[in-house]
Amino acid sequence: MYGLSGDAVIKKSASDIAKIVPGYDGGEAYIVNEEEILRLKERSALSGLPGNSEIKRAIEDKFIKGPSGAMVVYMDINGFKPYNDNYGFIKGDKVIKDLAGCFASSVKDFAGHIGGDDFAAVIEESSFDSLMADVIPFFEKKLEEFYDVLDYERKCVITFDRAGRRNRYPLMGLTAVGFGKIRNFKTADSVGEFAAELKAAAKLKAEKYMGNSIVFKYDGSSLTPLEDIICDEKIPLKIRRGAVEALGEGGDFSYGGILVKILGEKVDLFLKKSALYALGRLRLKETASSVAEFLSHSSAHLRMRSTEALGEMGLPQYSESVAALADDKNYFVRKAAVLALGKLADPAWCGLLKSKLNNRSVRDEAFISLAMLGDKDTLESLPVFINSDAVVADLRVRALRIMRELDNYPAGALVLKNLNMKSPVIKAECLGSAACLLRSGALKIDEKKQNDVFSFVSDRSAGVRRALAAFCGESAGNFSETALNVLIKDVSAEVRGAAVSALVKFPGRGADILAFF
Fold first, then answer.
1. Do residues 10 and 152 both lie within one domain?
2. Which of 405, 357, 407 is nearest to 378 (CA)?
3. Which residues contact 41 (CB under 8 A, 6 or more apart)?
4. For residues 106 and 285, which has the higher predicted lDDT (pLDDT)?
5. Are 93 and 116 part of one and the same domain?
6. Domain span at residue 24?
7. Residues linked to residue 217 through DSSP beta bridges, in sequence order
């Protein structure tokens, strides 16, 4: 049957078929099992192993819903890309095929090929060690076959990139991680996300098993040095909070599980406050439901941080819950809620925000939120808001960044008014916003105003001088080239670099640009 075999086609007698198809009067025949054919189609053409759909089903049925001793194993090849790039895809495919064959024959339960050099298996936890004892030595012995004699003997591949730089890549190895039901996994996707987190941690924590191969059997302990610090109650709370907030500032999404775990444990409230802050910085939308649970918490600190985090995630479905906190008894929670409504981008709350303009404690936040929602009257008043020393610097910076996105804003020149009386941060942001508006054609500035800005070539703040260079590149007035001639010799490398980038827009300055390099 056209190469199909096994469960894909089933031979049936005439009597059996008559039970399925009333009135059938033919002889014996083959019935096609469409579900099985679909499974065969999804199998990896390279390895012949089940693909992602079957892997997902196996994880859900055999692991999540399976016995307590079930374990998931994920495995990939360290250094496979450099090998594939240098030896070619034909040899790269052979590496995958050979590993797949050994992996499949060594796994007694289920083995699958995710794609590329990634594999997965569902096994009994008791068989993990024997699986590693089969696969890792097999792969290590194969390296002599995979590599040329010279590369194998010196234990690395040496290449040169297009710039002539020498690169050294170690021989391939395997990273294998295994874990049981150490967390309350609900879906195959959550298992895969945790496995990715575990593989990254394994390369930091696990010792070499053999050659360049790493094996990490996870027992539920901490995954990273930062998590070690967070979980150690002997370390002062201030340091532990700093470690938690560092997870958010670092921008590494793999730490989301650790942060959500902190929210669910019996730990100091201020540690949870830091975890909420970090989740907001990471903007991990999949954690929003865990964050939202703290909107009604008795601690104002946690209500405030959860509100801020949901605002950063930008999920309008939480806007009603956030809006309810606009009248919270705590001053800081109210401010956080009003500002978050703008970030949640739900225009249904414009009426509420306008009513808050009369509330002295939250009027500045209400103004910014209305600007984020595109309220016309508010947008027209942005320069007045920005130039007001009564408004905190953070909100003035937010206003300037909103202004940068506007398509047409002639009044934008007002942000350059009285620049010399503003703080360096505001001054730099004003110049940056004016440069953006000039670039988009949303702003025209007369030559007198441009000349007034020239005095900032000697400003004490490097940030202001760098912003001035960008401004000069967009304004192209008579003074701009003169200012850039000064800035290209600035003591700050960042300012010089910005000046060179701006000079590119002026014809005939090639020699100056080359001199910089």
1. no
2. 357
3. none
4. 106
5. yes
6. 6-37
7. 178
Q: Domain ends where: 183, 217, 251?
A: 217
Regarding whether 205 and 72 lie in a shared domain, the answer is yes
One-letter amino acid of 134: D
With respect to residue 507, please indicate whether it lies within any of the assigned structural domains: no
Could you tell me the CATH number of the domain that includes residue 95? 3.30.70.270
Tell me the pairing of strands 166-170 and 118-124.
Answer: unpaired
In the chain, the number of structural domains is 2
CB 417 within 8 A of CB 455: no
Give the integer Cα–Cα distance in Å for 8 and 33.
5
CB atoms near residue 423 (< 10 Å): 13
DSSP-assigned letter for residue 70: E
Q: Does any domain span residue 343?
A: no
Token reading at 407: 């398509």
DSSP string, 400-437: HHHHHT-S--GGGGGGGTTGGGS-HHHHHHHHHHHHHH
Contacts 24+ apart (CB under 8 A), 274-278: 274/241, 274/244, 274/245, 275/244, 276/302, 276/305, 276/306, 276/308, 276/309, 277/244, 277/245, 277/248, 277/305, 277/308, 277/309, 278/244, 278/245, 278/247, 278/248, 278/249
Q: Are strands 213-217 and 173-179 parallel, antiparallel or unpaired?
A: parallel
* Token pair listed for 334: 């109210």
The burial class, CB within 10 Å (0-12 / 13-18 / 19+), for 462 is middle
Is residue 13 in some structural domain? yes
What's the rounded mean pLDDT across residues 255-283? Answer: 89
pLDDT tens for 183-231 read 778 888 889 888 887 887 777 666 677 788 989 888 876 666 667 777 7
Instruction: Please give the structure tokens belonging to residue 445.
Output: 């500035």
- Do 93 and 136 share a domain, yes or no? yes
Q: What is the DSSP code (8-state) at residue 125?
A: G
User: Does residue 147 share a domain with residue 23?
Assistant: no
What is the SS3 assignment for 236? coil
Is position 60 within any domain?
yes
Where among 217, 245, 277 does a domain terminate?
A: 217
- The model carries a pTM of 0.58
Closest CA to 396 of 373, 370, 430, 421: 430
In terms of DSSP bridges, do strands 70-78 and 173-179 run parallel, antiparallel, or are they unpaired? antiparallel
